[in-house]
From TrEMBL:
<keyword id="KW-0238">DNA-binding</keyword>
<dbReference type="InterPro" id="IPR001647">
    <property type="entry name" value="HTH_TetR"/>
</dbReference>
<dbReference type="InterPro" id="IPR009057">
    <property type="entry name" value="Homeodomain-like_sf"/>
</dbReference>
<dbReference type="Pfam" id="PF00440">
    <property type="entry name" value="TetR_N"/>
</dbReference>
<feature type="domain" description="HTH tetR-type">
    <location>
        <begin position="4"/>
        <end position="64"/>
    </location>
</feature>
<protein>
    <submittedName>
        <fullName>TetR family transcriptional regulator</fullName>
    </submittedName>
</protein>
<dbReference type="Pfam" id="PF17932">
    <property type="entry name" value="TetR_C_24"/>
</dbReference>
<dbReference type="InterPro" id="IPR050624">
    <property type="entry name" value="HTH-type_Tx_Regulator"/>
</dbReference>
<feature type="DNA-binding region" description="H-T-H motif">
    <location>
        <begin position="27"/>
        <end position="46"/>
    </location>
</feature>
<dbReference type="InterPro" id="IPR041490">
    <property type="entry name" value="KstR2_TetR_C"/>
</dbReference>
<dbReference type="GO" id="GO:0003677">
    <property type="term" value="F:DNA binding"/>
</dbReference>
<keyword id="KW-0678">Repressor</keyword>
<dbReference type="InterPro" id="IPR036271">
    <property type="entry name" value="Tet_transcr_reg_TetR-rel_C_sf"/>
</dbReference>
Amino acid sequence: MKKKPVKERIIETALVMFEKHGYHGVTVDQIVDECGTSKGGFYHNFKSKDELLYHIHDVFISYLLNKAKETYDKESDPVSRLCAIITSFTKIFDLYKPHITVFYQESTYLKGDFEQQINEKRDEYRKLLFQAIREGQSSGDFRPEVPAEISTMAIMGMINWMYKWFKKEGELSIETIARIFNDMMLHSLLTEEALKSGKGEQFLLKTEPA
């Protein structure tokens, strides 16, 4: 079997070690020993351990932000936009759970420009989610009495907490979990008129026949 590229091996090894021992509990020497490369190989790909931590964070945040932008441009109505954004947000845990776990455990150690760049992308994502909700309020689809700011933070908090409990081998698929989240948020946000007209129906849980 062909050996994985050095950069990929370093990242995979660091993810396991950071998650188990913490960022400051792992040295560059330990990372290169564990993944079978050299310090030269490490510093050819990363200028420092801090840059490695930044890269781990940036990979999934950039992917998440790009997916949200694609969704926003693709969907034409606020309800579909919000649900598609929630779905892509949920599915990222099936792709990047180790990255996200390390992020929440070790993000306080990211400093300077690295911290600023990550925070700017997180803020851009939050604003896009907020905008979708506000547009739904303006169109009459979402209840205006439910503050968009709180709804935005509720969605982000609800989904982000998956890093604590989501397991790929669990009983529920990632698609089912996304549908549950969408169902919960739509029943909280949709106006009675929007519900009666069938807005977002394709994103709701299906009632089992008696």
